[in-house]
Fold these 4 entries.
Entry 1:
Amino acid sequence: MTSTFIRLHSGRTYDFAAPDPDSICIEDIAHALSNMCRYAGHVPKFYSVAEHCVKLSAWMKTDSRPVELQLKGLLHDASEAYCVDIPSPLKHMPEIEAGYMFHEQRAQQMIAAHFKLWMPIEDPIVMDYDKAMLEPEQEWRRGKDLHFGWVPGRAEREYLSKFEELRRAYEEELVNR
């Protein structure tokens, strides 16, 4: 019989058949996403999912978006720490989409529950920023120097730092509501 769980960097497990918010921790998310290359690795130099998320969240802060949206921006690809980053054309093929999307959405629900965020994490505003990030990323892939390409260790540190900054601000907002 095939196992339904994966062992995470922290030593915890994530069970696809019975996911649990208690299996989620930000260190696992940051570690996995910092070691996962965007665009199936077809980039001029390593560009992690973690770096993409940090830069998206920082852009949202520059645009004065609410802290909860910035946090959702940081976490919008967090399910990929469990389900991996699959190139969009493949992810949306009918024979893959239903199964993958089911598990990706369940992972996002567990992440939202763990961090006490309103669902969906993939808020329409966050998704607009995600789509808009494609333009500078594609320019960089075509040779424009836009300072993409942190090494995994830096991406992990930046992700955890941004998370702590946003978590503190979000918790402060919740107390003051």
Entry 2:
Amino acid sequence: MQKHIFNKISTFFFILIPLVLILGTITGCEDKKTTHDENTPSIKSKTYSLTDSKEKTYNVELSQTNLIMSTIKEPVVLIHLLPVNCVRCPSQIETLRKLKNKFKNKIYINHFFIDKETNPENIIFFTHLKQVLKLDNTIVLPLTVLYKNGKYFSHTEGIIPIEMLTYSIQEAIKK
């Protein structure tokens, strides 16, 4: 009797765990596009002094539809915003490093930590970006945002498979 119950419980968990992992991956990989129409209240342009994961500072101007990083020459810019304590993010950072090498001179990729203590300006930028993209507080981090020639292209929430990132980058480069 106990063996039978144990087998049923084992089978249940054997099915449940992969299902939860698959659903978690799918929901974290939504590619979202935000549209801006004339009925949307205008959000003022503002310049921020962002500090990246290597402690380098960049002046970034963010408006309703544009992101301008004056020192960046690549046509496609990928901004990766993540919390300092993100357990799964190192694998995403490694994936982005590979894509940066693959699309050399076509894309600029950088990581910005969202941390109140060490990067307060990054938090203010993140809050403004959430308003621009019309995101609520249920956002799944990390947040990855693509811009093409300074114009908003797309964004995704959560950890993203390399195939999906590759496709989004290729689409941004093509347009």
Entry 3:
Amino acid sequence: MRLYVLVMVGAVSGAFVAAGCAGETVSGDEMGDSSGGDGGTASESGGSEAGTLGNPGGGEAGGTSSLSGGAAGAVGDPGGELLIELDGREFILQSAEGYTPLEGITVRIWFGDGELGFAAGCNSHSGAYTICGTQLCVESMASTLMGCDAARHAQDDFFAEFFTSQPYVTLVGDELTAVVGDVTLVLLDREAADPDRPLTGRTWDVAEFMDGQSVSAYALPAQPTIRFAEDGSMQIFTSCNTGEGTFTTNEQTLVLSNVAYTEQACSDDNTVIVDAHIQAVLANGVVSYSIEAARLTLTRGEMGLAARTE
């Protein structure tokens, strides 16, 4: 079992200068490296002492940036209005100027209940924020402490320092722009960039199996799938047996009926476990479900399934 520890995130080492919320110039502290050892260490970063980001990628280890001090000329909405408009929303990075993100990693940021959070490929980060005029002001950020490769740690460091460097922000419809020095990030509301998929008319590949607080994945000879048809029928493949039934939806619940499975003997231990788990969750009765982007979660009591689709 992997242990996640909450720590305070340290900014990238190096001196930097930026405009504060009131427009004053301040100098930043020199920070430690969070990528060493088994997960590394981290320290508190102060949002009021924010500014120029160096190259956190360390050459070939991660992305590169050309963030430097100076005016970042974006002008946003009044602070109170923008604070309300950001609350409860999640954004996905679409493009970056002055920094090269790692390929194949989706960078997400979210706002809720006065906190900003982000995930950039390794750890999850969060911290209290407010809007200072036209700037996003984050005093410090906390982080889980997972061991990742140097490139992912470097990208985490970049975004941690970026968001504690009081970026100028604008929100126009679903597009959020954040600017510090020569670095500009353009993000799009998650529901516009990666909308929730409909439940029906598609195949869902089951990949995770929840039981209480544990989440498991298994190597299987064939991919378990679920398909909900628009006519209310349901087809299931457990990687061992096939099943079918009918369903109706009621807000965030499914009512399953007439569910029946074949009784083929499964070939290995993993398939036996997965077959039993799927049949326990997808049996006659009520199942809770939620869809976020391309992910479907189905739960019955302490047991659940997570599946993905195109």
Entry 4:
Amino acid sequence: MEILNNESAILVFNESLNAIEVYWKGHIKSDAYKGVMELAYDALIKYSATEWLSDMTHVGVTSPGYQQWMKQEFVPKCAKAGLKRVAVVEAKDVFARFYVDKVKTSLGENDLLNERFKTREEAHEWLKSCL
């Protein structure tokens, strides 16, 4: 079920996987990034989702302030809301991959099982195998 489709991202609730899925379309402004993530969190709560897929293939660098927000606020509140697993499709941009590495640390610290993948299909298969 599509929740959002704008210039920054596509946000979907995948009922068969009980997953929130965010497909980033490219470099985005920090305000838009936070807005998409907050909308995704609202969907996580609304649908009691336990899985998350973030396709970072086309994303650019995220500001250090929002990196801190993700690690210190967003990831912990998602874990408290019932999120169990996070699948990430790797970014092409080397700096975006560095950002993912930083967030990955926070995922582990919040007991969220997480894996990285080259394709969206691989990420979907992993999430299916966890159900």
